[in-house]
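Progress narrative, Year 2. Work on Phage tail assembly chaperone protein, TAC from Oceanobacillus limi advanced from sequence curation to structure prediction during this period.
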Amino acid sequence: MERFEINNEEHELKITLDSVKYLNGLYEGGAFMLIQKAISGDIDTYVSIVYAGLFHTEKGFKRKDVEKAIEDGIANENIDLDLINRTSYGVVAESFFYKKTLDKMFKNDPDAKKQIEALMK
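Result:
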């Protein structure tokens, strides 16, 4: 379970229907492109994943609030590429919603999946 601190409160990042709709609508290619971007550590995708993962809190966080928290985290050396990779992978690739699809994508290349998983842990 991935977590994110915003406004001095820590929240679980959780996939919901609204977050899936938002995330899958970000890129041409939908969920498949989202998975690729999440695995690659794309910073804009990380912002989107954190933002969407907070929808369930119903606290009305704005994307700019999430970006500011991430900007502060990077400036304070609390957020780095390793954290971005782990969080993006944890929220997307290991979620109940996307996991089976990811497993199918790597079915013919289990070594690649092992390497990615080792990198994301």
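The CA atoms of residues 31 and 55 lie 18 Å apart. The chain has seven helices and two strands.
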